[in-house]
Amino acid sequence: MRRRFRHRLARVLCLAAGLGLSFAAQAWGPQGHALIADIAAAHLQPAVRAEVSSLLAAEGHHRLDEIASWPDAIRHDRPRTGRWHYVDIPLDAAGYKASRDCPHDHCVVARIPYFAHILGDRSASQRQRIEALKFLVHFVGDVQQPMHAEDHDDKGGNDVRLSYFGHRTNLHRIWDSGIVDHALDLHVRSDYSIDYGPTRAAAIRLDRQITPREREQWTRGINSRHLNAAAIRWANQAHRLARRVAYGDLPAPPRRHWSETYQQQAWPVVRRQLERGGVRLAAVLNTTLGR
Ligand code: ADE
Ligand code: ZN
Ligand code: ZN
């Protein structure tokens, strides 16, 4: 992560914290996005890897994980992009409905095919394609986060205040980062930077657990002409996990001594969503940029 971007992200977060705002609609924390980018990077076709590297290099970056949280850093300056990070499918609804959940394409489901199209368009400017790559890497991650695919009149869980392992936080944030942090011990520094070494090592460990059968199932039907349908399937899958696990396994208040039990229920789900994110991101980049 480049310094300027890191400081900007830190400034936005400090500002939000200082104002006592829950930083609504944060994505996976920087660790989650970096893990997804690292898993994906290991599965790019050689020609795709080369093209991605050349786009990254134009901005002085070397690896996909360095740009994976960029859309969070610019949200403050570009407020219209805020709604692109999630899709508010009502928790009790059967599934995604574009007219209800994605007006004017301002949701994560619509932004995935949109940015994939720009990335794959070699007549678009390099600047546009680099930006599309940064949004795409981030949003293919976000749509796997169960709390980014639902709303329960609580801003995707941001209004559900609770205490997790002694930290005052909310339901949305524990799914963004609390559960990952607790399981993998990957901490974010106060300037919001992360240590790439341990994160990359953790990504290799997650990647090794993915079976060939899972890889095949998770990427079935992904091709550049049908990315909208794929994004809808991913959002519906995440929405079901929100209902069944994130809310379904949440004890009613007052919640005492619940963190360890919840962590054991949630971590396998979070881990699988990170793995799916990585595998699916690789497939999206391969189909978008492959020849
Ligand atoms: N704000 C409103 N709904 C949200 C969601 N599902 N995720 C993040 N931020 C939100
Ligand atoms: Zn979030
Ligand atoms: Zn996000």
UniProtKB/TrEMBL annotation:
InterPro entries: PLipase_C/P1_nuclease_dom_sf (IPR008947), S1/P1nuclease (IPR003154). Residues 1-27 form the signal peptide. Transmembrane segments: none annotated. One of its GO terms (biological process) is DNA catabolic process. The keyword Metal-binding applies. Keywords: Disulfide bond, Endonuclease, Glycoprotein, Hydrolase, Metal-binding, Nuclease, Signal. Pfam families: S1-P1_nuclease. This is Nuclease S1. It comes from Salinisphaera hydrothermalis (strain C41B8).
